[in-house]
Amino acid sequence: MTMLIGQMLGCLLVAAGIGGAVGWLLRHLSAAPLTQQLMDVTATLRLKGQTLEKVQYELKVQAEAMQILESKVIESEALHQSTQEELSSRHERIHALQEELAATRQRLSALESGQAALLVRVSDSEASTIARAQELQQSNDACQAAQQALILKEQELLPSQEHHNTDIDRLRTRIQELEPAQGRVHWLEVQLSERDTQHRTALHEVERQLAERDQRIGEFEQLHQQLTEREAAGDSWKAKYTQAVQQATAETARSQKICTRADDLQAQLTLHEQRLREKNNHIATLQRHIDAFESVQREIADQAKMVDEKEEEISRLRKRLVEVRAALQIRTDGGVAPHPVQPSGNQLSLLIGQTKPSTAQPKDDLKEIRGIGPAFERVLNKLGIVTFQQVAQWDATTLQQIADQLDTAPDRIKRDKWIVSAKKLHEQKYGKRL
Questions:
Q1: How far is it, in rounded angstroms, from Cα 66 to Cα 43?
Q2: Residue 323 pLDDT class (50, 70, 90 cuts)
Q3: How many CB atoms lie within 10 A of CB 380?
């Protein structure tokens, strides 16, 4: 960009130097070289204008790049906002999961305490059951011992049954007393079986609750793992967001710098365009002065040619007068009049004399040919060239002589194509092709 500004300043300096050179040339040189130099200056200014257009195009490209950067910054801000919203929602969900995990832990602690109490109760029930079973076993043992004793007594009393009826009645009374004990033992066995069933049911329930607790613990471990992964993802998103914010800040600063440089370049470009317009106006004014100077120079040249023609005509008339006087003197003396001496002329005079139109030949408007103005037409008419056909018949020598008479360059006549235009105009007007 600095090189571009330097090139623009160099172009302006070159344009200023060209303007000064044009002014100096206008003061010290003739109109023909000035015209060529003015054309060169015009071409140079056109090149400078093209350079300025390229600079404007580059500024437009930079403006579009700035717009693209602004859109990227806006997209980054939108992404930042969406990421922040997603992070907030994930934090809320993590908080809810943490609360649920705490409640689940409380429930697990309550279940563990209930399980401990249940185990205590089961152990107490088992102890009481064991004690009652021992009592029942003792009762059964006592009953079996009594039955064995009864059998022994019966065996002992069989030989002496008659003698021991009293003892048998007493033993029967003892047996009757033992029958309620057997019923109580049966009742204790029924209660024991019922309590054993209840204990087994409670154990199955505790095992089911423990299985559910293990399942819930597995689910909570999975949730904890997912929570850890999401926290890691949130940290990565946070790092990406921080990096994106830093990049957006850097891009914003860069965009501001580019905007500032673009504004400076736009101001410089405006100033350069204003100076270029002033130079163009100055060149246009100089061109008008040059045109006026050329018209005045042509008029002066026409007048000088008219003066030369008058002087030639005067000298020719003087020679004719001398000849007439000599002829008159010879006639007066009775001698023979000598033949008049023809004045010597150059090749252009002979050519013009040969190409003078007859009185019956029509006169064409030579101004229809591109590059021939009123002044050139007057000079050509004075030289005897009044038709398109005469212009169309010029050769290289005649073209050089006509250019010398018109005080212009032969290349200009060739560049404007006077001969080709004269042929076309003659064919259009008279229907004859030369």
A1: 35
A2: confident
A3: 19
Between 281 and 19, the more confident residue is: 281
Neighbours of 394 (CB within 10 A): 19
Report yes or no: 268 and 4 within 8 Å, Cβ to Cβ. no
pLDDT in tens, 198-220: 878 887 887 888 888 888 888 87
The mean-pLDDT minimum among 162-176, 257-271, 308-322 falls in 162-176
For 159-194, the DSSP string reads TTTTTTHHHHHHHHHHHHHHHHHHHHHHHHHHHHHH
Do 154 and 136 form a contact (C-beta atoms < 8 A)? no
CA dihedral 22→28→29→35, nearest 10 degrees, is 20
- Which residues have C-beta within 8 Å of that of residue 150, sequence separation ≥ 6? 171, 175
Q: Is 9 within 8 Å of 275 (Cβ atoms)?
A: no
In whole angstroms, how far apart are CA 166 and each of 155, 161, 162, 175, 274? 15, 9, 9, 14, 156
Q: What is the mean pLDDT of residues 246-266?
A: 81
Which residue, among 404, 405, 420, has the nearest Cα to 371 in the 3D structure? Answer: 420
Residue 302 has pLDDT above 70, yes or no: yes
| Contact criterion met (CB below 8 Å) for 266 and 59 | yes
Nearest to 64 by CA among 259, 240, 223, 228: 259
CA angle 33, 35, 38 (to 5 degrees): 110
Q: Say if CB 48 and CB 279 are below 8 A apart.
A: no
Q: Which amino acid is at 400?
A: Q
CB–CB of 348/268 below 8 Å?
A: no
Q: What gap in Å lies between CA 425 and CA 419, rounded to an integer? A: 10
* DSSP code, position 228: H
Q: How far apart are CA 49 and CA 8, in angstroms?
A: 10
Q: What are phi and psi of 28, to 5 degrees?
A: -115, -15
d(CA 31, CA 116): 124
When pLDDT is cut at 50, 70 and 90, the band that residue 401 belongs to is very high
Query: Can you give the residue ranges of every domain in the chain?
Result: 2-289, 345-434
| CA R_g for the chain | 68
Q: Can you give the pLDDT at residue 333?
A: 56
The two three-digit tokens of residue 209, written as one number = 């609750």
Positive or negative CA dihedral for 236, 242, 244, 247?
negative
pTM given for the model: 0.26
Q: Are 299 and 375 in contact (CB under 8 A)?
A: yes
d(Cα 398, Cα 347) in Å, to the nearest integer?
A: 9
Residue 358 has pLDDT above 60, yes or no: no
